[in-house]
Design goal:
FAD/NAD(P)-binding domain, Rubrerythrin, domain 2, 5-stranded parallel sheet, 11 helices, 28 strands, 27% strand
Length: 449
Amino acid sequence: MMKVVIIGNGVAGTFTAQHIRNHDENVEIEIYSQESYPYYTRIKLPELISERVKIDDLIVFKKEWYEKKNIKTHLNKNIISIDPKQKQIFIEDENEPVAYDKLILATGSMPNIPPIKNAVEMVGKGVFTLRNIDNALEIRKYIKTNEIKKAVIIGGGLLGLELARQIKNCDLNTTVVEFFPRLLPRQLDVGCGDMLKEDIEKMGIKVVLDAATEEIEVNGTIKGIKIKDGRKIEADIVLIQAGVRNTIGLAKNANLETNRGIVVNKYLETSEEDIYAVGDCIEYKNQTWGIIPACLEQSKILAASVIGNRNIEYEGTVPKNTLKIVGIDLTSVGIYDPSDKDLVGAGWDIMKNIDKKGGCYKKIVLKDNTLKGAILFGEKEAIPYVNKHIEKQINESELREAINLYKWICGGCGAEYDDAKMEILFKDLPEDWKCPNCKGPKSGFKKKI
């Protein structure tokens, strides 16, 4: 009987185990993890700090699920090395190695701490990162026992903003500091970034952009941060959410090919026979992914690969992010700004409408009639269509119907008014508006279907 050992019990490791079991009832599956808890959702970790949720609410699969699937889990196990030749892994404080037939590395990623003076030295003493349940509990305890009043979050990405919202819910004076000149620099263009900033500030969270943190100021305890341009912000606690680094130490020490991540091929195989990798820790064609959709997609392909089915190949995952802040609907999918990626050239088409008054921003990116990306802010209805049709040829009238941006044709002269190219939607134009071409009335325009 084949024995599969998985290192890591996050979304990638756990779903890989599930898919392997779906393929084969008899494979022996064992999961080893440093974590103290079975697989849980990290998305809601900030809510654990503000006590909006309990630990049990985060656990995705209870004990019975593992028993039913016949998947053995070993928690609080620190794997210290791999011997690819003998096909064994070694666990800290345990004499006997664990043998495997196939090994899967699902080691994930760890928070990145930028080179900020005093940051590393003060971790756990007023400086924190948030990656697991224990981090959240530690932050919560520190806020309560030290009567914390002011917090600074370094990092205005998805995790930073979601954390800021929950820190604000702890009744703390909260400031987000972002290195780039806009929030969510990996998901938004400038226009939408500005609208998001306004919404975040309406929640009572201060936002400081274009700010490289140079130093965490300490005098026994945290006093605040100093930005490279000289600005200072007072704080009793500093939370760093400045991206992640792939966890590749185990693979590197076992002489597997690594770069930024553990290098894999289209079957999720590493450079060493019978060792695979999946999730945040991998690198494929010089690219890494830190998103749940990639973990889920990879886990299906890897499970098939492990049991010998090489019909499915990994082709990469389209970036897809949804902001989980109460009161904000924001989805970013795929290529949102071709000019940002040196992709400008023939075939690109952008459909965009900004309704600042209504707090709505829609942007659709097409290339040769293929949907390549979108930003939808303050817009929920179009999300299913966009997710379903990303990287597919689209029917223009269907797309326009889904995103509520239409073309209007003047009955008098045939002039066109395109909602997707104008600041104001046709329906919102004043009733006395006239066709700029023939001066015909607004009522003379008909929607093009």
